[in-house]
Structures are given as structure tokens and as C-alpha cells.
Amino acid sequence: MLIRYKKNYEKIAMGLLSFMPSEKDLKKLQATMRQYEMEEDRQLFLWKEEDIIGIIGTQLLENEGLEIQHISVNPSHRLQGIGKKMVKALKETFPNKAIQPNEYTAAFFDRCDTKEERD
């Protein structure tokens, strides 16, 4: 289930974001968290099953599209379709928005779309 980020999830969110290659540096990671907390055009969502095991961050674009800035799944839960479920839930949450990846999430996003077409 996709849930909106709240400040009390900060440590979990930072842990999940730190799995992304672009967020390895602590100062960069802290700056990214501040952006999601302060900028109205950015939203962070957590994926919860029994525990919180994934995260997906978005930015609203000027053309009213939505760009996936970050997507990460706890390594012990990878290869189980969690990332694909997060992208699908995001599309269902924002049905009127064109959802697209950025340069860091494009490869994963493309695999999700390809996999969906085969299902």
C-alpha cells in the first residue's frame, strides 16, 4: 500500500533512499529529504506491506506531468515486484497525470512498463 511520507518516517525514508546510487553521500541525502519536506511540487511515498519496504519520490512538472525522482526497495525484498507495484499504485493515485522517469529512474521504469505489457 502506498502511503504519504510523514516526518516520523524520516529515518526509514532516509535508509531506503540511501540505496539509490545518487543518494550515497549523507549531505546529499539530507538535502534531498529537505526538498521533499519543503517543496510543494515534490512528494514522497512509502510502500507498506507488513513493514515499510519501499519508497518512491515524485516531482510535479510544469506540464502537469509527474516525474519519478527516486525509487528504491529494501534489498531483502527486491525481485518480488514491489517496485512495479509502487509505479502502478502511483499511476492509480494520479490517473490524470502523465508519469515519467528521470535519468536515474528511467531504466527501472522502462522495465516496469515492458513487464506490464507482458502480464
Structural description of this entry:
The protein has a five-stranded mixed β-sheet, with helices on both faces. The protein has helices spanning 10-17, 26-38, 82-93, 106-118; strands spanning 2-4, 42-48, 52-60, 66-73, 99-101. It has a single domain (2-118), classed as 3-Layer(aba) Sandwich (Aminopeptidase), CATH 3.40.630. Residues 114-119 have low confidence and may be disordered. It is globular and about 30 Å long. 39% of the residues lie in helices and 25% in strands. The chain has four helices and five strands; from the N terminus they run E-H-H-E-E-E-H-E-H. The longest helix has 13 residues, at 26-38. It is an alpha+beta fold and 119 residues long.
